[in-house]
Amino acid sequence: MTVLILTCEEDVTADMVVVHLNASGVPVVRLDPADLPGGVALSGEFAHGAFRGHLQSAGRLVSITGLRSIWVRRPGTPGARAPEASAWLAEESSQALWGMLRGSGARWMNHPDAARRARHKPWQLRLAQECGLPVPATLITTFPQAARDFAERYPDLVVKPVSGAHPQDPPRAVPTSRVAPDADFSAVAFGPTLLQQRVAKRADIRLTAVGEQMLAARKATAEDADPDEVDVRFASGDVPWRAVDVPPRVADAVRSYLRRAELAYGAFDFAEDTDGTWWFLECNQSGQFGFVEVETGQPIARTVAEWLARPRPEPRRHVNGSHTRVC
Amino acid sequence: MQPFALNYARPAVELEATTPYVYDCGQQLNVLMDGRVAAGDPALLRELGTTTSTAGSKTHFDD
Q1: Cα(A112)–Cα(A100) distance, rounded to whole angstroms?
Q2: What is the DSSP letter of A147?
Q3: Distance from C-alpha of A8 to C-alpha of A102, rounded to nearest angstrom
Q4: Which class does domain A137-197 fall in?
Q5: How many CB pairs under 8 A join A and B?
Q6: Is B39 on the interface with A (CB under 8 A)?
Q7: A residues 168-187 near B, CB within 8 Å?
Q8: In chain A, where are the structural domains located?
């Protein structure tokens, strides 16, 4: 059975996993949904109570019901590279592809429905609380006065996008940023604003969870670090990521989080405070891991490959024959 | 008036347009000019930062 990887061509992080799958002799088909129709073709027939479907890409033909797992990495939007792309064609292509794959019976990393839900940061914060992970005091509001009141109670705040997305017109990045003590919160009325108590961190933690496996890395905060530089993605300096053990209580909470979120993969960001407590910041359901592996040597890509290579569960057997459902 | 969070926006840094590898659809991997698989060169990946978590990327919704 085949592993299907949905991602763009330039995704070298996916390459790291493909290399391991190839070494294990596991069949792989890699394609970008953006190439449907054109470089990617599909066909599915529903007849006589059964489904038969196929995908074709770069000369490879794979049965949709012959997929053991589907890895949703960095897929483009279906129809995006069609000669006459349109919103209508994108929707048609999306419905055809994702609709057939949903019926494949394959294991997902991650299922699109779970992935979509898991991207919501407010939902992440609540789930983390319920799973017992420490969450910094957070306010998401469009009330300027609520922001002012929150800033009085928690004078040291950061601001970050609610969605994690960044404006593209023009292209800008919105890093997690420290809020000035005398900030004017009037503009909170013009868009939902996420304010969070700043964690005086001594390290950033990236915990990559793959199924039941957890691989955590720690990047110590440089002694001479600018306290206004709170977003590790923009931090200067060359402090490396180092592998670190996961505290058992954190591991239990993360397992609970993944189970309730129905995620097979999650990249968790924590801030480690001076007491050693790991404060939950977010869980990115398709977060990058290559940069951690190349610095720490942790076998994340191999762990992903092993998860994808597992055989899929046996189909349920029904008492009156394999095609008879008991309701 | 712009939302409060955009007061902290900065220009997005896009990765270099050219990378020293190209996608080989036969192997389903990116390969270097000398034929080696790019993913087999961790030092190169580290140098290029193409596996890095980057805010503001157009192509990477998830960091």
Answers
A1: 13
A2: H
A3: 20
A4: alpha beta
A5: 154
A6: yes
A7: 168, 170-175, 177, 185-187
A8: 2-106, 137-197, 199-309
pLDDT of residue A78: 97
B10 touches chain A (CB under 8 A): yes
C-alpha pair distances (Å), A198 with each of A154, A235, A279: 9, 16, 10
Closest-CA distance, B5 to chain A, in angstroms, reads 6
pLDDT tens digits along A121-171: 999 999 999 999 999 999 999 999 999 999 999 999 999 999 988 888 888
ipTM, two decimals, is 0.87
**CATH classification for the domain delimited by A199-309, as one of 3.30.470.20, 3.40.50.620, 1.10.3720.10, 3.55.50.30:** 3.30.470.20
Q: Give the closest of B13, B28, B54 to A28, CB-based.
A: B28
For the stretch A83-136, pLDDT in tens is 999 999 999 999 999 999 999 999 999 999 999 999 999 999 999 999 999 999
Residues B20-54: tens digit of each pLDDT: 999 999 999 999 999 999 999 989 888 887 777 66
Q: What share of chain A is helix, strand, coil (3-state, %, to 5)?
A: 30, 30, 40
Mean pLDDT, rounded, for A271-289:
96
CA-nearest residue to B19 within chain A is A10
Q: How far apart are CA A177 and CA A20, in angstroms?
A: 38
What is the reported pTM?
Answer: 0.92
| Minimal Cβ distance to B51: which of A18, A189, A291 | A291
